[in-house]
Amino acid sequence: MSAPPLYRAPKSTIDPDQSSRSWLRRALPVVLAHKGLLLTSLALSLVGLLVQVQIPNVLRLGIDDALVARTAGLDRYVWWLAGLAVAQGFVNYLARRYLLRTAYEIEYDLRNIMYAHLIRMPYGFYDRVQTGELMSRSSSDIRAVQMYLAFGPSILVQCLIAVFAFALMVSIDPLLAVVAMATMPVIALMGVWMRKAIFPVSWLIQSRLAQVATVVDEAINGVRIVKAFAGEQRQVTALASAADRVRWAYRRDAFIRSRWSPTLENLPRLGLAMVLLCGGWMAIEGHASVGAIVAFNSYVLMLQPPFRMLGMMIMMGQRAAASAQRIYEVLDTGSEIAERADPVRTGIRGDIEFAGVDFAYPDGTVALRGLDLRIPAGTTVAVVGRTGSGKSTVAKLLARYYDATAGAVRLDGRDVRDYALDTLRDQVGIVPDEPFLFSVSIRDNIAFGRPDASLAEVMAAAEAAGADGFVRALPDGYDTVIGERGYTLSGGQRQRVAIARALLVNPPVLVLDDATSAVDVHVEQRIHDALRGLLHGRTTIIVAHRLSTIALADTVVLIEDGRVAAQGAHAELVAGEPRYTEVLATMQSGRDRVDSGIDQGVAA
Ligand SMILES: Nc1ncnc2c1ncn2[C@@H]1O[C@H](COP(=O)(O)OP(=O)(O)OP(=O)(O)O)[C@@H](O)[C@H]1O
């Protein structure tokens, strides 16, 4: 069995109780958790800047002293300039390394915070949201926020060059310094306008990218259905129309960027012309040196890259704000299935009671109406009923996938809401009719609930579930890695692996929700024989669509329209409950078509 990968928990969390705060304040803990790295990178950037702003000054002294006045040798200034350039390059390299490390640490944390939240969300949440939407919030939205959180402070530090350059220019010539920086207030104003214009488009882009992800996700996951109904062209058209909506949003974005960015970047260049005009006039009049004009020129040029980045940062900021809100929407969705403060963690015997249980799914569909049912520990009950009558819902409430709208579901006399969720789900094993398998080995699939199980235990569970024979015949036996979702196995084989998975955990309450529907009657018979031994002492609920399955149970519960219509031994119900015989007849006619009536004999 492969060793579980190491897990490093995120160093911080995003508190859901602070939804009124600005997105940046809420994200601050994630940044501050890496403040050591971030501050080192910012400090290094600052040192780089301090070195950089010295360069024009040395140039000025070189020109004025070595070229114009000839009071000093040129080589000294050349060495100084070369030394400063090398020092600046080295410091910038270090700053960038630290900055990128900060960025990826922040991304790691954000991803893990999001995933830890998603994986704990209840069934009801996943009924409502689309996978593609969640995928895009967990990937591109997180990337957008990470970029801004890590690179934003660094760009702001870079922009400090304006302050340093201004200070140095003032020390050389205050009047010329004011002229060189005259465009700065206009730049600040434009930045504010641009932010306002770009935010709605950023929001649109991110939500439309999520729509594309949803179309792709459904088409890939449903590719077998798409092909079965020759729906390829329809899917291509659906994607094209989603992609077209993204393209429209990106074009709006590009339009806004192309209108504002060049102006924002080039405004400092206007400063160049003004320096030449005023500085040139002052030099002619003898109020300024040629070296000072060259230095001012360099300073103004030096301002351009940070201001280009400032424009980018404003765009990034708006995209990050939109993305952060999309991430917070998920993080702020609380789990409706909450544990009480001091949950019960004791094991159970398996007494089950539904007392006046009403239940409606989050979309309002009423599934159970005043359901009363008692299943004593250690018994096996078959639940039958027409399709949609509420059989699977009974199982889902038992394991607290959902909570009852009214009434109570009790295990050993205690409300299921009193138990710790992991305790409850360890005690109640559910095998659904369409099991999900992971793209790992069969052994790891069976051992999913007990990763520490030995191979012998895995094989014993597989044997009981009737899976051992076909697994041994696979090329790598239990080590065979199955294709995505187990599609390289047949439906019946997948079901048997899922039964083995539940049996390995050996829960005191086992629910088989039509778990052998895709297995042929002979194999089902063998599984039942094995289960009969294993079911002993365990409370078992079998949602049954076959007479052969019902034969396993001590009692049968007939569910109609979300309530218990009748309960008793199979023979009693057949004798005295016409609704039961009606349901059996419909089950049987459906089965007959599948099994050619083979299993009628089993029930008899
Ligand atoms: N996730 C869901 N969201 C909304 N409604 C649901 C959901 N799951 C089931 N339902 C509805 O709840 C009712 C009961 O469903 P349930 O799955 O319990 O029926 P069932 O008796 O197990 O049916 P079947 O024998 O076909 O599996 C049905 O009307 C169904 O449409």
Q: Give me the CATH architecture of the largest domain, please.
A: Up-down Bundle
- Oligomer type: single chain
Strand line-up across the major sheet: 6-7-8-3-9-10
- CATH homology-level superfamily of the largest domain: ABC transporter type 1, transmembrane domain
Give the termini distance in whole angstroms.
44 Å
What's the total count of β strands?
Answer: 10
Which ligands occur here? adenosine-5'-triphosphate
Number of distinct helices: 23
The SS-based structural class is: alpha/beta
For the largest beta-sheet, the strand count, sense and barrel status come to: 6 strands, mixed
- CATH C-level label of the largest domain: Mainly Alpha
Q: What is the molecular shape?
A: elongated
| Count of structural domains | 2
Instruction: Assign a percent range to the helix content.
Output: 55-70%
Low-confidence stretches: 592-604
> Whole-number average pLDDT?
84
Give the strand content. 5-15%
CATH topology of the largest domain: ABC transporter transmembrane region fold
Radius of gyration based on Cα positions: 35 Å
List the helices and strands and how they pair.
Blueprint lengths: L22 H10 L2 H34 L5 H47 L2 H6 L2 H8 L1 H20 L1 H12 L1 H7 L3 H38 L1 H6 L3 H53 L5 H42 L20 E9 L5 E10 L4 E6 L5 H8 L7 E6 L2 E2 L5 H7 E4 L10 H5 L8 H10 L3 H6 L17 H15 L3 E5 L7 H15 L3 E5 L3 H4 L4 E6 L2 E6 L1 H7 L1 H18 L4 H4 L1
Parallel strand pairs: 3-8, 3-9, 6-7, 7-8
Antiparallel strand pairs: 1-2, 1-4, 4-5, 9-10
Bound molecules: adenosine-5'-triphosphate.
